[in-house]
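User: For my dataset I need records formatted as: sequence, then structure tokens, nothing else. Please produce one.
Assistant:
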Amino acid sequence: MALGFIKKVFTFGKEKPAERAPDAVEDKASSSELEAEALARGASDDLLADLPLADDPILPEEMDTAGGPSPDLLSGQAEPDASEPTIADAADLDMVPLELLKAEESVEQGYVIENAVSTEALTPTFHENPIQPADVSQGLIVGAAEPSKTRAPIALPKGFATADSVPVEAVAAAPQVKQTWFQRLTAGLFRTSSQLSGQITALFTKRKLDDETLEELEDLLIQADLGVETALRVTDTLASERYGKDVTGEDVTKIMAAEIVKVLKPVAKPLALDLSHKPHVILVVGVNGTGKTTTIGKLAAKLSGSGLKVMLAAGDTFRAAAIEQLKIWADRTGSTFLGTKLGADAAGLAYEAFEKARADKADVLIIDTAGRLQNKAELMAELEKIVRVLGKLDPDAPHTVLQTLDATTGQNALQQVEIFRNVAGVNGLIMTKLDGTARGGILVAIAAKHKLPVYFIGVGEGIDDLEPFEAEDFASAIAGIAR
């Protein structure tokens, strides 16, 4: 009876496979107890050998390990050490080997594990693309990116190159060529000359010189701010020489340039300094924004560069920026500076500056004034007061009254000269901002009407952008004739 019971136990599952529960797992300990009980009842070794083996209680799914056998074991180069736990044992015992913990910690610190089972030193590697959570499984990096230095070179499209492939000597800075004064003046008057010459050329294309053509030419010259007097001079000269004949645009521009020279030549004079008066007082006036302070700095640079002792007085007491700007110019040119507090009386400052310049034996005293519109009577009265105060100290002072004119002003500049001349006794002009304006011809109209000396013209804000006025250069530049 006992033998039959043992036989039923060891054949259980073969006789009735359908009745076996799918999740039933035999325990190793139970099988051992049954075998021991059978031997205790006198079962022979042959009987036990004929008995069928029970199914392995551990399912195949549970036998898969995280890393598989060691590569050394697969190659047969090493035997497993029974004393050290394997990954499979760790899986059964719900333990994580120390190597895997180190690997996971290294991954968090930005390292790449080439072989998680190996205990080789870890190498830090920078990743352009961060490792995503899906790539990490139980502390291992699946398909880890190679270091950036081993990446294949990127093929750039045509016309591109990497920075290290371009020779350094191939990128050389182009040498800077300094323009002459006439080149800078021509560039400044380019818009005026190109507009005027283009219109003249279009007017005289396949046409004979007649009254209608002369009238159209006169309108063009007036629109270019050359003034009525200059326009009449050009048309009269052209009519006397070429009336009834074919005329080209080049012929007209040459005659126009010659007539402009005749108008400008008498006013192109140098600024005369009477150094018998110490100091020689130069008063600078003008409308807001015409470049008075900058012009004073450039004049001081020219005078101090020639060895004269120059003093600059900040008479524009309405703008703190003007006072600071003039002080900078004084420091730059080595001139003496005299200023006062904001809002102080400009006439009082002029008086103090004259006394100090006389005591210091300065050769030239240049006084800045506040910008004012010519139609503001109260402001013009303040300017007149400055002139009276200086006249009390020296009957001839101020010896030179310079008015700065903005070339972009146009016809309004004619009125400015007339009023400032009557109030402050302007006896010389400086034209500024001839650096791209389309209205540079107004200087010709002013010279023809007021016949005041034009001492300097400016084509920019640089210290070298103020030069003596030359009639021939200006006429050629405004007519677009190369010299």
